[in-house]
Amino acid sequence: MSQNETSGTVAVDNQKIRTKQMVLIALMTAVTCVLGPLSIPLPFSPVPISLTNFAIFLAIFVLGMKSGTISFIIYLLLGAVGVPVFSSFRGGFQVLAGPTGGYLIGFIFLALIMGFALDHFDRKLVPTIIGMIIGMAVCYAFGTVWLAKLLSLSFKEGLMMGVIPYLPGDAAKIIIAAIVGPKLYGATQKIR
Predict the structure, then answer these.
(1) Which residues pair with residue 42 across a beta bridge?
(2) 151 domain-assigned
(3) What is the CATH classification number for the domain harbouring 90?
(4) How far is CA 74 from CA 16, 61, 133, 160, in A?
(5) CB within 8 A of 50, min separation 6: which ones?
């Protein structure tokens, strides 16, 4: 095989990898757009129970830190321009500026922290779960400060309204994602 043929083969292989990655980013953005609006409103809080963090967990398992975070940012941008992809099928910049906006922005940190753990510990499950937990804690902190400031609450009141009721459900999402995520990743690796 000549040098030109080898270069051509490498270029084609690199293009396939980039195309596959772009398709997976689009697919995981679509999954987040489908799961994100599914939510259960709670009468005592402006923060509904949603599947957005579960979608982020799956996206990071499939894509890793960089591409998973890009996927979530695309989702945020779609919602910010008015596509109804946020909880309860809402969209628009006013949602980002509202009581749940801190959690939506906080999900970027979740993606980065979980993705860092996944990428830097060779996809080992325990460090990845620890990354999920730390990422959720940072997201909770960011969202709680935002919620408390916007609604003139103390930090403790913000925790009671925007974190404590969600802990059992988020723990269940972490467990389910830890089971399903590696299988999704394995399935995507078989795609050529």
Answers:
(1) 45
(2) yes
(3) 1.10.1760.20
(4) 22, 17, 23, 30
(5) 36, 37, 38, 39, 40, 87
Question: How high is the mean pLDDT in each 10-residue block of the chain (192 residues)?
Answer: 56 76 96 97 94 98 97 98 97 96 97 98 96 98 97 97 97 98 93 72
Cα 177–Cα 181–Cα 186 angle in degrees, nearest 5: 165
Please count the structural domains in the chain. 1
- Does residue 3 fall inside a structural domain? no
Q: Is residue 5 part of a domain?
A: no
Token duo for residue 47? 């923060």
Domain contains 7:
no
Tell me the residue range of the domain where 26 lies: 19-190
Task: Count CB-CB contacts under 10 A for residue 152.
Answer: 7
Beta bridge partners of 50: 39
In the block, tokens 């970027």 appear at: 108
Count of CB atoms within 10 A of residue 155's CB?
Answer: 13
